[in-house]
Amino acid sequence: MKATGIVRRVDDLGRIVIPKEIRRTLRIREGDPLEIYTEKDGGVIFRKYSPMGDLQEFAAQMCESIGAATGRIAAVSDRDSIIALHGAPKRELIDKPHSPELEKLMDQRKNYLYKSGDRPIFAASGDEKYRLGAASPILSQGDLMGYVMMLLGNGDQPLQESDQCLVKTAAGFLGKQMEN
Fold this sequence. Notes:
Blueprint: H1 20-26, E1 34-38, E2 44-48, H2 56-70, E3 73-77, E4 82-86, H3 90-93, H4 100-108, E5 112-113, E6 131-140, E7 143-152, H5 161-179
Antiparallel strand pairs: 1-2, 3-4, 3-7, 5-6, 6-7
Helix pairs in contact: 2-5
């Protein structure tokens, strides 16, 4: 555990304010759920909760199926990073923060299909090796949970509308699984 030197008091309603610097560093937004853990020595740990984490193994199987069927890179992300991947080295993308362009797309909750001449949207911050070919939001009860994506490497040809339909179907399916 890393000490920050920041001390906060609990108010009369039992609330603690998480400093802005820490929220920004950990990408905690207003309304984000946090899991609370306690340690034997009396410590309290807050972790960002990802509902997609419960479906991580299932998402990995879905990526493997999409990748095997299309020969492309398939990925599933939660709100912060890619949590499942097939067709590219995991160390390059898993748990890496989203690029600012992908964050913007996620805020808009839009489907995406790259076309030649478009400005690329990179999957991970600081990585310009993999860009979105097709992407669709995972929505559960109206809330954005993440994205299903097919990625393109350098030199890969753009995807077809049928690929985008596959991504939309997978995202819809994952959204329904989260509602159950």
